Amino acid sequence: MTEAVSSPTLPPAAPGALNGVRVLDLSRVLAGPWCTQTLADLGADVIKVERPPGERHPGGDDTRGWGPPFLKDRDGLDTAEAAYYLGANRNKRSITIDIATPAGQDLVRRLVTQCDVFVENYKVGDMARYGLDAATLLQLNPRLVYCSVTGFGQTGPYRDRAGYDYAVQGLGGLMSITGERDDLPGGGPQKVGVAVADLFTGMYATVAILAALRHRDATGQGQAIDMALLDTQVAMLANMGANYLASGVAPKRAGNAHQNIVPYQVFEAADGHMILAVGNDGQFAKFCQVAGVPELAADPRFVKNADRVRHRDVLVPMLAEVLRTRPKQTWLDALEAAKVPCGAINNLAEVFADPHVLARGMVTQVPHPHTDSLRLVASPMKLSATPPTVRRPPPLLGEHTQQVLAEFGLSADDCAALRQAGAI
Questions:
Q1: How far apart are alpha carbons 367 and 365 in whole angstroms?
Q2: What percentage of residues in the chain have a pLDDT greater than 90?
Q3: What is the CATH number of the domain that holds 331?
Q4: Would you tell me how many other CB atoms lie within 10 Å of the CB of residue 355?
């Protein structure tokens, strides 16, 4: 248990939309923590349950050690807090419980009776082995919303497999449609640059939990939620999945082009690359006017989007030749003035220096025990009455164990006994 250092006290924030909702969070890595961070941003009291340090394990969420980069302290030295962990765990309180011990299991069951939501992402069967499965906990607290996050769900032939975002991107079809065309240099399977199966699963889990809380408040009845990375990956194929189901033809990789819209891809300007994202026939006509080739908008091969898709191999090289004649900023200024969708391709330094990103409040700063100002990516949700707030920095391991257990009615002697038993 690590409580020698604690987070600075922040000014009180207005109650969030989920004020009064208490979440017991036994999830680790990304999908589960992304879900519970979203709930915490909206005002829920999220209690992050982590493994205590031991002889063979440093304790805590694995992502605490997934670096570099690590948070630097006031002297410029690396701390034990990886940026990966910091990005998914703000607004939570951390307690340490060893759920492999009988005393730790009993403690979790005691806490659950006073919680609204329970989130876990252990392998199928682990929670039952610990007596912490949905059936057991819903008996103790029938109003509980119990959310399991796994790679493949609680049922089906893959249920016992470990699930990882990278593997699910491959198995779930995303890598078959991501990357350069196979017939071009650099073609082949490509994963997305962030763990989108994890992130989407976390967001879908958030939606499911909110729906279950709505049902619970109306009926008094809790329920179990079964979230799977593979299910989510299949669902998020969106129009590409619909394309296959409608045609029976599996889409292929198209690089930076769009399968259903033309021109909608990256083009090279005179001094770099830019995005042209023409979404309808009117926008194509405006683009052609700006580009000085109005005759293309009247060409029967290119008038309608369906025509442009069919004649992609003819049109795109013609547009590429035109776009190489001017600098990218000249194009962007002219196209934006004409209301033709387009964009720059920024690196992350440019993203976080962008005046619009800053004006929208997408970077937030919060004091942390190790530094006076920790910069984090802010929540994108903008609610007029109950906006998300940053009330706490990502917690240190076990920072709130004593405080939280006292709130649940455990005395100092109770905690000492649990510590002696190796449960906390």
A1: 7
A2: 91
A3: 3.30.1540.10
A4: 7
| Residue 252, φ and ψ in degrees, nearest 5 | -110, 170
> Is 251 part of a structural domain of the chain?
no
Q: What is the pLDDT of residue 263?
A: 97
Do 151 and 228 meet the contact criterion of CB atoms below 8 Å apart? Answer: yes
Both 44 and 146 in a single domain? Answer: yes
Residues with a catalytic annotation lie at 198
Average pLDDT of span 403-419:
95
Do 384 and 310 fall into the same domain? no
**pLDDT tens column, 177-186:** 999 989 888 9
Q: What is the pTM of this model?
A: 0.91
Q: For tokens 């196209």, what's the residue?
A: 335
In this predicted model, what pLDDT tens digit does every residue of 11-66 receive, in sequence order? 777 789 999 999 999 999 999 999 999 999 999 999 999 999 987 888 999 999 99
pLDDT of residue 1: 46
Which residue range(s) make up the domain with 400? 22-235+361-420
Mean pLDDT confidence for 156-167: 94
